[in-house]
Design brief:
With 398 residues, the protein is α+β, with helices and mostly antiparallel strands. 41% of the residues lie in helices and 13% in strands.
Amino acid sequence: MTDATDAGELRRRTAELLAAYPPATTDRLDFLRARFDAGLAWVHFPEGLGGLGAPRSLQPVVDAELAAAGAPDNDPRRIGIGLGMAAPTVLEYGTEEQKRRFLRPLWTGEEVWCQLFSEPGAGSDLAALGTRAVRDGDGEGWVVNGQKVWTSSAHLARWAILIARTDADVPKHRGITYFVCDMTDPGVEVRPLRQITGEAEFNEVFLTDVRIPDAHRLGGIGDGWRVAQTTLNNERVAIGGMRLPREGGMIGPVAKTWRERPELRTPDLHQRLLTLWVEAEAARLTGERLRQQLVAGQPGPEGAGMKLGFARLNQQISGLEVELLGEEGLLYDDWTMRRPELVDFTGRDAGYRYLRSKGNSIEGGTSEVLLNIVAERVLGLPSEPRTDKDVAWKDLSR
């Protein structure tokens, strides 16, 4: 096998893919499948699993060549949970059979994933979760009962990453096991949660005697909290460190309005816009640096800081945009109850951005929890006192 750690070699392989599957005449899904099989989906993944074992830093080489050729791509906005959270976890903890079953349709978008983590009584304190998984009669699988909440894309998903309690006699962090749940199985009920925007992008999910084969367990029994940290760390990087061009994200529409509508300008708004523009650019470059650091391995707690900044910036920028537009900023384009396939911050109006950004400081870990993570794991400050750390889950007050 030719060494694939060289940019020139990756360009050659990309040219071969384009020659064999011309974008202009190849079905989109066929092209995405061929790209995965050629190892050009995630070049840093192992061979046979969408990659070539090349450095992660070389992925932009492939992406640039394909974009220049007009090749189709997958849609991270629609399958972001699978790409940013499920895939890294499956890669690190999955069996070979699990990796080969799940990664290809996940990357091509043939199968959408969701995340069954938070519960009505276990949001910020996720380790307090009460969804139970018990061995079935023959010991080949598990029976799961419980309720999950704030589940994005559950109404579209074929698969879910799920954490459930398998041992109530040990402290809360130690009795959790991580599973892959088939969302089409009997006993899985998805109900929409209508948001302040009018749509139902989130859901609550009820699990009633749902049977999960042991072959769909990721990691060891009772080791689910450690497995979940891989998911959560990748989630924070996926949310806070997404790759954007200059003036990408929420700062773009505000800057565009400022340039095109001089009658709206005031000195105060100008100063605030300049400040937020600089902060958005600094956050974008910091996200790029964080992605480069991932070449050496899995993301760490630094992603919590990126996600914190993402939430704060989005809320401040969207607030400034509403002020800039004045009465226009109070308009909202559509309150229709919808169950969207993706979240589009820039394709809607200012009112939508203002309302939707309120959730940024909750989803993917509340800002308060992330501040604790940064304080303890990045800055090395003392941990907050915990009276329940060594108490069996069954003995905790609820």
